[in-house]
Amino acid sequence: MNLHALLEARVAAGRPVRAGLIGAGKFGSMFLSQVPSTPGLVVSVIADLSPERARSACRTVGWEEERIAATAFVEDGRALAARDDVEVVIDATGSPAAGVAHALAAIDSGKHVVMVNVEADALAGPALARRARSAGLVYSMAYGDQPALVSEMVDWARAAGFRVQAAGKGTKYLPAYHKVTPDGVWAHYGLSAEQANAAGMNSRMFNSFLDGTKSAIEMAAIANACDLGVPEDGLSFPPCGVDDLAHVLRPRAMGGQVEGEGMVEVVSSLERDGRPVFRDLRWGVYVVFEAPNDYAAACFRQYGLPTDSSGRYAAMYKPFHLIGLELGISVLSAALRGEPTGHSRFFRGDVVAVAKRALKPGETLDGEGGYTVWGKLVPAARSVTMKALPIGLAHGVAVVRPVAEGAILTRDDVAPLPAGDAIALRGETEAMAG
Predict the structure, then answer these.
(1) From CA 240, how far away is CA 269, in angstroms rounded?
(2) What angle (nearest 5°) sits at the alpha carbon of residue 94, between those of residues 219 and 140?
(3) Please, which residues bridge with residue 267 across strands?
(4) Contact in structure between 147 and 243 (CB atoms under 8 Å)
(5) 190 within a domain of the structure (yes/no)
(6) Statement to judge: residues 25 and 131 lie in one domain
(7) 179 occurs within a structural domain
(8) What secondary structure, in 3-state letters, does 370-418 show?
(9) Of 294, 313, 337, the domain-final residue
(10) 137, 185, 417, 423: which could form a disulfide with 207 (CB 3.0–4.6 Å)?
């Protein structure tokens, strides 16, 4: 709890922490809004496909013209990573291939990496983290986003001597959402297409949250960071409010709805008939843990901690997360402590592409949040054995044989994937499955 004191010491020494941001979208903009009020933290360069759009984002979040003028704006994220005035590289692009390339460039240049891009982390995070460790560098999840927050809660529970039973987040979910396409997404958010367009909202991005893909990606990141299990046939999204977390997320053998012990799961803010869940956790994160002995269980009761009926399982939760407004925690932790705020150490969970509808040879997959596939969380060992197609590689690739609606696509269902950094690091990651 001394990041601010460490930062003040850097200020006193005249050595501010210098970060480079790749991608000035919503997450990046939220981070940029906090920089002026964090003395000692400097964003020296911003890379974006449109540097002028990045400058506009800085003005929108309240940067003064003097700060903008003192900042370099470039198009190439790899060029950013090579600069001498960058200590920590932040990838906030959302493109798996770009995230892998930027992380490799940063590591090769001796820079720490904060990976906002959970898509890249789910695709190849374990291999990227291993490369960073070998170079004496930090590869970190982004604080403020759910994977890093859950990783922190899991670490707290284990360090305090509790066994973690389940961990994850909340979301709005119904089974029918898996088939939703960008054309129908806005009705589920209570918006018209015109309203969404006027607000600059991206239909594919919001659809990836709705159709279950983003939840699967985030849970894969958590499983891989925390060495937690993954349901054999994907997330079940049980409806659950905060008061019932310990009851619902017990193992099935104990009367709960979790497949086994020590697993990731997402809870829904909607009952299956569409009614809202009482005291839902739609915007939050949680950890369910077990008392190691009768004495600890008695302490749960004595100090008012809500438990299941046995008194042995309890839950802690955080009802909100602030996305990019909290990202500075990761940047400072990497630069000042040499520690990540969560990072992929294992390959336990993978996100595979599932057909939203029957697919024909000659069709082209359009990836996360699109019209053709959605992402499903499965155990990494199962994914590797069946040669499943990762959702992070399911964009711009042609289907070569019929695929039934609801089927997991395999590498044999699509044309050969083009060689590159993403494919190479994916291969390294798959070798870590177990």
Answers:
(1) 7
(2) 60
(3) 170
(4) no
(5) no
(6) yes
(7) no
(8) CCCEEEEEEEHHHHHHCCECEHHHCEEEEECCCECCCCECEHHHECCCC
(9) 337
(10) 185
**Last residue of some domain: 307, 337, 367?**
337
Domain count, the chain: 3
Residue 391: CATH number of its domain: 3.90.1210.10
Instruction: Give the span between the Cα atoms of 114 and 215, in whole angstroms.
Output: 20
Do 294 and 328 reside in the same domain of the chain?
no
325 contacts: CB under 8 Å, gap ≥ 6: 30, 31, 33, 34, 144
Domain match, 165 and 69 both:
no
Rounded to whole angstroms, the Cα distance separating 434 from 382 reads 9
Domain extent, residue 362, equals: 349-430
Is residue 383 domain-shared with residue 367, that is, in the same domain?
A: yes
Quickly count: other Cβ atoms within 10 Å of residue 224's Cβ.
Answer: 30
Q: Do 93 and 116 fall within a single domain?
A: yes
| Neighbour count for residue 47 (Cβ, 10 Å) | 28
Residue 210 tokens, joined: 């709705």
Q: Is residue 180 part of a domain?
A: no
Residues 155 and 275 in one domain: yes
| Tens of each residue's pLDDT in the chain, 434 residues | 799 999 999 999 999 999 999 999 999 999 999 999 999 999 999 999 999 999 999 999 999 999 999 999 999 999 999 999 999 999 999 899 999 999 999 999 999 999 999 999 999 999 999 999 999 999 999 999 999 999 999 999 999 999 999 999 999 999 999 999 999 999 999 889 888 887 778 899 999 999 999 999 999 999 999 999 999 999 999 999 999 999 999 999 999 999 999 999 999 999 999 999 999 999 999 999 999 999 999 999 999 998 999 999 999 999 999 999 999 999 999 999 999 999 999 999 999 999 999 999 999 999 999 999 999 999 999 999 999 999 999 999 999 999 999 999 999 999 999 999 999 999 999 999 97
Tell me the C-alpha to C-alpha distance, in Å, between residue 124 and each of 128, 236, 300, 308.
Answer: 6, 24, 39, 37
- E strand or H helix at 301, and its extent? helix 294-302
Domain co-membership, 99 together with 15: yes
On whether both 159 and 290 belong to a single domain, the answer is: yes
